[in-house]
Amino acid sequence: GELIIGSWNDAIAGRGGQFLERPKIISFDGRDVYQDDSWPLKFVWHGSNKYGETVVHDNCNNWSSSSSSMFGMASALKNLQLLDQQKVACDEQLIVLCIETTSSLPKRKKRQAVNITMDGEQISETIHSQGSKIKNKKNLEKNGNAEDNAKIEDNISQNKWILV
């Protein structure tokens, strides 16, 4: 893959999703779409406004029509924008991009299920000493007052708590 836009925010900031540079766009069977005559118009379908939001009307009847009297939103590749705002008749053969989005955020670790055998008193002591956040299946409020602590103790002994 090739990085074509700096970030998702760059794509939807209302400036048309400016490409970093002219992207290499190759069809699944290896043809360069800029050079190949199978795509006489060098446009890509997107069906969005300049903010990346789906348009209601100009989407070729939810991409089910090839009528020359209906229109869809597309982007001219020469303008180097993913979300350039061009209305194109639905009977045109335009490019459909497959784009992978990536994240620069660290990946979250999956939680692992652990079976721990403790009695209610041990669980209560562990929860209070570690300051763990707990969530009651009955969605009791967590405001830390004495009444709630009594409910916590009662529910722990009945195994109605989930550690989160």
UniProtKB/TrEMBL annotation:
What InterPro entries has UniProt attached to this entry? C-type_lectin-like/link_sf (IPR016186), Collagenase_NC10/endostatin (IPR010515), CTDL_fold (IPR016187)
Collagenase NC10/endostatin domain boundaries: 2-101
Which top-rank group of organisms is this from?
Eukaryota
Protein name per UniProt = Collagenase NC10 and Endostatin
What is the species listed in this Swiss-Prot or TrEMBL entry? Answer: Halocaridina rubra
What gene is this protein translated from? cle-1_3
